[in-house]
Specification:
alpha+beta, six-stranded mixed barrel, five-stranded antiparallel beta sheet, single chain, 4 domains
């Protein structure tokens, strides 16, 4: 004999939770009494009437619950608050800890930026993965030498006999300094003579003119900086300038300066290959490997298949000549390998700049490890001062996992503060670092990937730096701590001693390595060369006019009185 189910549910819906149990108990007691007095049917009807009579605002009002209901975020806020209090309470310890971490992180960030810049070499070109340089192996006295230079006949041969494998094939001179003249204004800039398709291969960003401007044999494309140097704010298009006092050419285009982390970073102007070709002797043959050949593969071709296809392209042309004895073999070196994997030994790629990238990456990790070890040692050295805190937390119900989370949170806070100081330090040092490394490295503030990596870097450093303190400090037994019988054991300090030994070993190794490299550089700079280099000047001659009047130039130079010895020190 139970009261009506719907009436009971209605009571639970409308009555305040803190009153519903008491009211339901009273109604149920009355219901049982009425069943005995008036019967089940009337008792149920009176029960419904009683429930409806209780639907009053005073009984429906919810009571305020003052009992705290902590969540995970509440605990994390508590951890952060305790961490801030520890930092402000022990200012000297905090300053040493943050300064050590910030310095190590700054060095690691600088090296990471440099490594990222090295791996990003040439990747600004849209056709980066399809551009290659034609290389050749030749055998001399059973030794294989690898060259990047080719005969000027190679590009036409590749276009004619292997054209289906390529989208573009261009011949290029080796880059060098050239004299550009505009009236009485003369500047020396690094540029190159290349076939016109280079503009499409590199997908130059044209600021003025078009990429087709190089089709005119007496034309020139200028980079933005060179155009600014020669013409200022004036429009350079269709203006005449002179190259090396040999060729008068017309400016047909201006392109944006190429990035500093590019193999073409010094390509400040491009002149037509046909202009250079007219100045070459007619006797040049397949045996004269004086030039470069760049290719862009067709969309359906791969580096491996094309390398195999063109392997004997030169050998087939010289097989009836004396050059055949050198067994020339051609292959493609992808643009991805130009900067980091450009060294060959006996015909085998042995790496190159990638060795220094790996070396500095290891150094950066070691420096960061030293900073983390320093943090561990400082944290565990204060273990007795944090013991009571751990004991109280465990006594009121915290488990070891929660105590470890607290110390990891504290570690993340300190690392985050150190990261801010590290970024400021990097901003201050970066100009000097660029001057030493000969790079133009910037912090990519607008790149979301940078901030994702920065957060990952913070988390990684926090885990490494906070791992040992979290494990060690969370292992304290609350009974011994609260009774005052807790003492750091003889073997408890052993891990810290090991970390100190590791820290000093790595530091001394890095210092010794730095001194050795410094001494090698100083020796290379100051080694005896067989003559005095003091006041010795070498001036390249860029014009035939100076060669034909060399005697006059020499006499005028001697008459200036600026030479200590003459005329033996002047050589043509």
């Amino acid at each position: 004999m139970n009261p009506p189910h719907l009436a009971t549910r209605l009571l639970h819906w409308f009555c305040a939770p803190h009153r519903v149990d008491e009211l339901e108990g009273d109604l149920d007691e009355l219901f049982q009494q009425r069943v005995e007095q008036v019967g089940l049917r009337k008792a149920r009807w009176r029960y419904v009437q009683d429930v409806l009579s209780l639907m009053r605002p005073s009984l429906m009002k919810r009571a305020t619950v003052n009992y705290p209901r902590p969540t995970t975020t509440t605990m994390l806020r508590n951890y952060v608050k305790v961490a801030f209090r520890n930092l402000t309470k022990h200012k000297g310890y905090s300053a040493i800890n943050i300064a050590g971490l910030a310095t190590g992180m700054a060095v690691a960030i600088l090296i990471a930026l440099w490594v990222a810049n090295e791996f990003a070499y040439n990747q600004n070109y849209p056709n980066y993965d399809r551009i290659a340089k034609v290389m050749q192996n030749q055998t001399f006295d059973d030794k294989i030498d690898t060259w990047s230079s080719q005969a000027m006949q190679l590009a036409p041969e590749l276009r004619t006999s292997y054209g289906s494998h390529f989208k573009y094939v261009v011949t290029a001179d080796f880059p060098g300094d050239h004299l550009l003249s505009l009236g009485n204004q003369k500047i020396t800039k690094s540029g190159n003579f290349i076939e016109p398709d280079i503009t499409e291969m590199l997908t130059l960003t044209m600021l003025k003119g078009t990429r087709a401007g190089l089709r005119d044999p007496y034309s020139i494309l200028l980079s933005e900086s060179v155009a600014k140097s020669l013409f200022g704010d004036a429009d350079p298009l269709n203006k005449l300038i002179n190259i090396d006092k040999k060729w008068d050419v017309k400016v047909t285009g201006v392109y944006a300066d190429l990035p500093s982390n590019s193999s073409f970073q010094n390509l400040t102007f491009i002149a037509p290959w046909d202009l250079k070709k007219k100045d070459l002797p007619e006797w040049l043959s397949w045996g004269n490997s004086w030039f470069q050949t760049f290719v862009q593969l067709a969309d359906n071709a791969t580096m491996e298949t094309v390398s195999v296809a063109i392997k004997d392209a030169k050998l087939n042309k010289v097989k009836h000549e004396s050059d055949a004895r050198f067994k020339p073999e051609l292959f493609l070196l992808p643009m991805a390998s130009w900067h980091l994997y450009s060294e060959f030994k006996n015909g085998i790629n042995t790496g190159g700049q990638i060795q220094y990238v790996r070396l500095f990456s290891i150094i950066g990790l070691f420096v960061l490890l030293l900073a983390c070890i320093n943090f561990m040692n400082l944290s565990t050295a204060r273990s007795e001062k944090r013991a009571k805190e751990v004991g109280v937390r465990k006594a009121i119900g915290s488990v070891r996992r929660q105590v470890m989370l607290q110390f990891f949170s504290e570690s993340f806070l300190i690392v985050s503060i150190a990261f801010i100081f590290a970024i400021l330090l990097v901003v201050l040092i970066l100009p000097a670092f660029n001057a030493i490394a000969d790079r133009q490295i910037d912090i990519p503030w607008n790149n979301p990937l940078f901030w994702i990596l920065a957060l990952g870097f913070n988390l990684f450093t926090s885990l490494i730096a906070g791992s040992y303190p979290a494990v060690y400090l969370s292992s304290f037994q609350p009974i011994k701590v609260l009774k005052g019988t807790f003492r750091v054991g003889r073997f408890a300090a052993l891990p810290r001693k090991v970390l100190v030994v590791v820290q000093f070993t790595v530091s001394i190794t890095l210092i010794i390595g730095t001194l050795i490299v410094f001494q090698q550089i100083e020796f290379a700079k100051n080694r005896p060369v067989g003559y005095s280099r003091s006041s010795l000047v070498s001036i390249p001659i860029k014009t035939n006019a100076l060669i034909t009047h060399f005697a006059t130039f020499r006499d005028e130079l001697i008459n200036t009185g600026s030479l200590r010895k003459w005329p033996q020190r002047i050589r043509r």
